[in-house]
Amino acid sequence: MDLYEYQGKELLRHYELETLPGIVAGTPEEAGRAAETLGGTVAIKAQVLTGGRGKAGGIKVVNSRREAEEAAGEILGMDIRGHTVGRVYVEHGEEIAREFYLSITVDRTAKRPLILFSTEGGVEIEEVAETNPEAIVRLHVDPLLGLLPYQVREITFAA
């Protein structure tokens, strides 16, 4: 199952994990209203099921309703790695002190979930895997036992 960023964040909020406030928009006008509602600096983020959004110009930081409408107008309809952007996620902006990469995927060879974690967030994970593979923690999760405490500690110590 693939989730858009906004869907993943809805899931996190459902389980009472804190995320930044955000609103999904399908038009530049909706993005402008969302930016006004959230107030201050916001990020306009392309919603596509692929990586590389930032490098492709699919993430823009803006400070006003007008700028949000302009950014959404540029991003909506954009092609990112063969995916057409149909929606943007307007998210409240925060100063970034440190970024991490966290992904849960299915390792079809091992037939179990695989958690990938890296302290080198904000960059292409494929690039990290190629140039600095030891910076990525890979943990297989037993589907019957779930994520075990020692695995959580392993991720925590890596951070």
TL;DR of this structure?
The chain is of the alpha+beta class and 159 residues long.
Task: Jot down its keywords.
159 residues; alpha+beta; Dna Ligase, domain 1; D-amino Acid Aminotransferase, Chain A, domain 1; 2 domains; four-stranded antiparallel beta sheet; 9 strands; 26% strand
What does it look like?
This protein is α+β, with helices and mostly antiparallel strands and 159 residues long. The chain has two domains: 5-92, Dna Ligase, domain 1 (2-Layer Sandwich); 101-158, D-amino Acid Aminotransferase, Chain A, domain 1 (2-Layer Sandwich), CATH 3.30.470.20. It has five helices and nine strands; from the N terminus they run αβαββαβββββαβα. The protein has a four-stranded antiparallel sheet, covered by helices on one side. It has a three-stranded antiparallel sheet with strand order 7-8-9. A two-stranded antiparallel ribbon has the order 4-5. β7 (101-107) and β8 form a beta hairpin. The longest helix is centred in the N-terminal third of the chain and has 11 residues, at 28-38. The chain is elongated, with a radius of gyration of 17 Å. The two termini are 27 Å apart. The mean pLDDT is 94.
